[in-house]
Specification:
Layout: H1 8-17, H2 25-32, H3 36-48, E1 52-58, E2 66-74, H4 79-90, E3 95-102, E4 107-113, H5 116-129, E5 134-147, E6 164-167, H6 180-190, H7 197-204, H8 208-220, E7 224-231, E8 239-247, H9 252-264, E9 268-276, E10 280-286, H10 289-303, E11 307-321
Antiparallel strand pairs: 1-7, 2-4, 2-5, 3-4, 3-11, 5-6, 5-9, 8-10, 8-11, 9-10
Helix pairs in contact: 2-3
């Protein structure tokens, strides 16, 4: 019978390595007062049983890309017809993410574009492809991304979380031109699990020494911003939500308080700073709707004097997720 939960020890191991995949087993064992071979076994088994997957964080801002997100209602009648149209959209060049939600906002789409003008053209094309069935759309441009460790799996852990952070504060003036070899590396790492460099070199047909040099260059440019273990939330029957926050005012104090709240709350998995129809996106994961109600209550408690509007999106499914959503060899600036 398929397993649908993690043991206490498995959850504690995952909490320590999820944003630090290279953390030595001996160090994890020391912190957990266990033995290295037990830690190694647990990580290997979680990967083999598809609970976790090692991924690479590709930084679109370092590539000079603009990240545009739109949420909207979709009035196409019939679930099969809606899914067919959304799957067509998911295949389009530059479409990074497509997800379905319950409630007022039924669909979310993220676009990666070399310029804002290109992104607006993509949005127009998206509306045309949906034949006038896109309604109540909300649009924003993402500027900061914070990824927090999942701590709700092991509730005894307290304190503020460490995190991964990428930002568009100092983006390239224009989208970077990758060499064909660099592009192959980025596309492979952005759209699958993270292999060893030797495995990656063999898979792409590049000499190991050349690939190592290219990986070093990609890291120096912050295009490859880090590694992490993703979690198979569906397998564990975990509920996923997005909270969209519109604020009465936006200044550094507000951002500091929003970030501090997300670092403290164990159900917050990521935070996105945006410019547009809302100011912040908070990713929430939990086991019950009551957990979500508790989180929203705590948000109001901590940020009430700043909040203008709060909207919750209940995620049903993700149809596409790619950190480098370009399929053709020559796609403009990239």
């Amino acid at each position: 019978m398929a397993k649908h939960s993690l043991s206490e020890f498995e959850a504690r191991v995952f909490e320590l390595v999820q944003l630090q995949p290279e953390l030595a087993a001996a160090e994890v064992a020391r912190r957990l007062k266990s033995r290295p071979h037990r830690v190694t076994y647990v990580v290997r088994r979680l990967i083999e049983e598809e609970f976790i997957e090692k991924r690479v964080l590709i930084n679109p801002f370092a590539l000079g890309l603009k990240v545009i997100v739109v949420f909207f209602s979709l009035t196409i009648p019939g679930e099969a017809a809606r899914l067919a149209r959304l799957n067509e959209i998911a295949k389009q060049n530059g479409v990074s993410w497509v997800a379905c939600y319950s409630g007022r906002m039924q669909v979310g789409v993220v676009l990666h574009s070399p310029t804002l003008e290109d992104g607006l053209r993509q949005l127009d094309q998206l509306g045309v492809s949906l034949g006038g069935h896109m309604r109540d759309k909300m649009i924003a441009v993402r500027t900061h991304y914070y990824q927090f460790p999942r701590r709700y799996l092991q509730p005894i852990t307290n304190g503020k979380a460490t995190f991964l952070h990428i930002t568009s504060n100092a983006p390239s003036e224009q989208a970077l031109k990758l060499t064909e070899e660099e592009r192959a590396i980025v596309m492979r790492l952005a759209n699958g699990s993270c292999p060893s460099q030797r495995e990656l070199a063999r898979e792409l047909g590049q000499p190991v020494s050349s690939l190592e040099n290219r990986m070093l260059a990609l890291r120096k440019k912050n295009i490859v911003s880090g590694t992490f273990y993703s979690l198979n939330t569906r397998r564990l029957k975990i509920l996923s939500y997005k909270i969209l926050l519109s604020m009465q005012q936006c200044h550094p104090q507000v951002e500091e308080q929003v970030l501090a709240f997300c670092r403290q709350n164990v159900h917050c998995c990521f935070l996105l700073r945006t410019l547009g129809s809302w100011d912040y996106e908070i990713g929430i994961e939990c086991f019950t709707p009551q957990d979500l109600a508790n989180v929203t209550g705590e948000i109001y408690q901590h940020l009430e004097k700043f909040i203008d509007h709060l909207e919750v999106l209940d995620e049903i499914s993700v149809l596409k997720f790619s950190l480098f959503p370009f399929s053709t060899k020559n796609n403009g600036a990239l």
